[in-house]
Amino acid sequence: MRTIVSFLKKAALVAVAGLALFSMAPKAQAANLLELNFGLFGPNYEGKVGSCESALWKITYQFQNKEAGFWNSALQVAGFSRVQETAFRPWTSDNIPRRFCTADAMFTDGKQRQVHYSVIEDGGFAGYGDGVEWCVVGLDRDWAYNPKCRAAKF
Protein backbone atom coordinates (compact mmCIF):
# COMPACT_ATOMS: atom_id res chain seq x y z
CA MET A 1 0.00 0.00 0.00
CA ARG A 2 2.87 2.33 0.84
CA THR A 3 4.45 1.82 -2.57
CA ILE A 4 1.21 2.63 -4.37
CA VAL A 5 0.79 5.88 -2.42
CA SER A 6 4.39 6.93 -3.09
CA PHE A 7 3.99 6.05 -6.78
CA LEU A 8 0.82 8.16 -7.02
CA LYS A 9 2.56 11.11 -5.35
CA LYS A 10 5.45 10.91 -7.83
CA ALA A 11 3.05 10.60 -10.78
CA ALA A 12 1.09 13.64 -9.61
CA LEU A 13 4.33 15.61 -9.20
CA VAL A 14 5.43 14.71 -12.74
CA ALA A 15 2.00 15.66 -14.13
CA VAL A 16 2.08 19.05 -12.38
CA ALA A 17 5.61 19.71 -13.66
CA GLY A 18 4.54 18.78 -17.20
CA LEU A 19 1.55 21.09 -17.07
CA ALA A 20 3.73 23.93 -15.76
CA LEU A 21 6.17 23.50 -18.66
CA PHE A 22 3.30 23.27 -21.13
CA SER A 23 1.71 26.49 -19.87
CA MET A 24 5.00 28.39 -20.30
CA ALA A 25 5.31 27.44 -23.98
CA PRO A 26 5.01 30.36 -26.42
CA LYS A 27 1.71 30.79 -28.15
CA ALA A 28 1.39 30.00 -31.86
CA GLN A 29 1.48 32.99 -34.17
CA ALA A 30 0.31 33.55 -37.70
CA ALA A 31 2.85 33.43 -40.50
CA ASN A 32 4.61 36.67 -41.28
CA LEU A 33 4.87 38.11 -44.79
CA LEU A 34 8.01 36.15 -45.68
CA GLU A 35 6.55 32.86 -44.47
CA LEU A 36 3.44 33.07 -46.60
CA ASN A 37 3.28 31.26 -49.92
CA PHE A 38 4.39 34.40 -51.67
CA GLY A 39 6.54 33.66 -54.69
CA LEU A 40 6.10 29.89 -54.54
CA PHE A 41 4.90 28.28 -57.71
CA GLY A 42 3.38 24.84 -58.02
CA PRO A 43 3.99 22.31 -60.73
CA ASN A 44 3.14 23.33 -64.24
CA TYR A 45 1.95 20.22 -66.00
CA GLU A 46 1.41 20.40 -69.73
CA GLY A 47 -0.17 17.01 -70.30
CA LYS A 48 2.73 15.90 -72.51
CA VAL A 49 3.14 12.29 -71.48
CA GLY A 50 5.19 9.80 -73.46
CA SER A 51 3.49 7.06 -75.45
CA CYS A 52 2.96 3.56 -74.14
CA GLU A 53 5.76 2.28 -76.36
CA SER A 54 8.24 4.83 -75.03
CA ALA A 55 8.21 3.23 -71.57
CA LEU A 56 8.92 -0.35 -72.61
CA TRP A 57 12.71 -0.05 -72.47
CA LYS A 58 12.48 1.34 -68.92
CA ILE A 59 10.23 -1.52 -67.81
CA THR A 60 12.67 -4.04 -69.32
CA TYR A 61 15.65 -2.44 -67.57
CA GLN A 62 13.93 -2.03 -64.18
CA PHE A 63 12.50 -5.57 -64.29
CA GLN A 64 15.94 -7.05 -64.93
CA ASN A 65 17.47 -5.04 -62.06
CA LYS A 66 14.68 -5.98 -59.66
CA GLU A 67 14.83 -9.68 -60.48
CA ALA A 68 18.63 -9.88 -60.23
CA GLY A 69 19.02 -7.61 -57.20
CA PHE A 70 16.09 -8.57 -55.00
CA TRP A 71 14.99 -12.02 -56.08
CA ASN A 72 18.31 -13.51 -57.29
CA SER A 73 16.68 -14.50 -60.56
CA ALA A 74 17.96 -14.39 -64.13
CA LEU A 75 14.45 -13.89 -65.54
CA GLN A 76 14.26 -11.13 -68.16
CA VAL A 77 11.75 -9.61 -70.55
CA ALA A 78 12.31 -10.95 -74.07
CA GLY A 79 9.79 -8.73 -75.84
CA PHE A 80 6.41 -7.02 -75.82
CA SER A 81 3.28 -7.37 -77.95
CA ARG A 82 -0.26 -5.98 -78.00
CA VAL A 83 0.75 -2.69 -76.39
CA GLN A 84 -2.33 -0.54 -75.85
CA GLU A 85 -3.43 2.51 -73.93
CA THR A 86 -6.20 1.91 -71.40
CA ALA A 87 -6.66 5.48 -70.12
CA PHE A 88 -5.16 8.95 -70.35
CA ARG A 89 -5.56 11.44 -67.53
CA PRO A 90 -8.63 9.63 -66.18
CA TRP A 91 -9.07 11.91 -63.18
CA THR A 92 -9.57 15.64 -62.95
CA SER A 93 -7.18 17.93 -64.78
CA ASP A 94 -5.57 19.04 -61.50
CA ASN A 95 -3.87 15.68 -61.00
CA ILE A 96 -0.48 14.68 -62.34
CA PRO A 97 -0.97 13.61 -65.97
CA ARG A 98 -0.70 9.83 -66.44
CA ARG A 99 -1.14 7.45 -69.33
CA PHE A 100 -2.26 3.96 -68.32
CA CYS A 101 -1.23 1.10 -70.58
CA THR A 102 -1.20 -2.67 -70.79
CA ALA A 103 0.92 -5.06 -72.82
CA ASP A 104 1.70 -8.74 -73.20
CA ALA A 105 5.31 -9.55 -72.37
CA MET A 106 7.30 -12.65 -73.31
CA PHE A 107 9.87 -13.71 -70.74
CA THR A 108 13.04 -15.78 -70.97
CA ASP A 109 11.30 -18.66 -69.18
CA GLY A 110 9.03 -19.03 -72.24
CA LYS A 111 5.90 -17.73 -70.52
CA GLN A 112 3.79 -14.80 -71.62
CA ARG A 113 2.44 -12.52 -68.91
CA GLN A 114 0.45 -9.31 -68.87
CA VAL A 115 2.11 -6.05 -67.80
CA HIS A 116 0.09 -3.10 -66.50
CA TYR A 117 1.89 0.21 -66.28
CA SER A 118 1.50 3.96 -66.21
CA VAL A 119 3.65 6.68 -67.73
CA ILE A 120 3.78 9.74 -65.45
CA GLU A 121 4.66 13.26 -66.56
CA ASP A 122 7.71 14.56 -64.65
CA GLY A 123 7.69 11.36 -62.58
CA GLY A 124 11.31 10.44 -63.24
CA PHE A 125 14.21 10.86 -60.83
CA ALA A 126 14.05 14.34 -59.24
CA GLY A 127 11.12 15.23 -61.52
CA TYR A 128 13.18 14.90 -64.69
CA GLY A 129 11.53 13.01 -67.54
CA ASP A 130 8.64 10.61 -67.53
CA GLY A 131 8.35 8.12 -64.71
CA VAL A 132 7.00 4.59 -65.09
CA GLU A 133 5.17 2.45 -62.54
CA TRP A 134 4.61 -1.13 -63.67
CA CYS A 135 3.47 -4.54 -62.51
CA VAL A 136 3.79 -7.97 -64.11
CA VAL A 137 0.82 -10.22 -63.41
CA GLY A 138 2.08 -13.33 -61.63
CA LEU A 139 5.46 -11.80 -60.76
CA ASP A 140 4.38 -9.20 -58.18
CA ARG A 141 6.43 -11.01 -55.57
CA ASP A 142 6.35 -8.25 -52.99
CA TRP A 143 2.56 -7.87 -53.42
CA ALA A 144 2.83 -4.14 -54.04
CA TYR A 145 -0.06 -4.13 -56.53
CA ASN A 146 -2.01 -7.21 -55.42
CA PRO A 147 -4.30 -8.91 -56.35
CA LYS A 148 -3.19 -9.61 -59.91
CA CYS A 149 -1.71 -6.11 -60.33
CA ARG A 150 -5.13 -4.51 -59.96
CA ALA A 151 -3.68 -1.45 -58.23
CA ALA A 152 -1.43 -0.75 -61.28
CA LYS A 153 -4.40 -0.60 -63.63
CA PHE A 154 -6.58 2.44 -64.08
UniProtKB/TrEMBL annotation:
Keywords: Signal. Residues 1-30 form the signal peptide. This is Uncharacterized protein. It comes from Tardiphaga alba. The lineage of its organism: Bacteria, Pseudomonadati, Pseudomonadota, Alphaproteobacteria, Hyphomicrobiales.
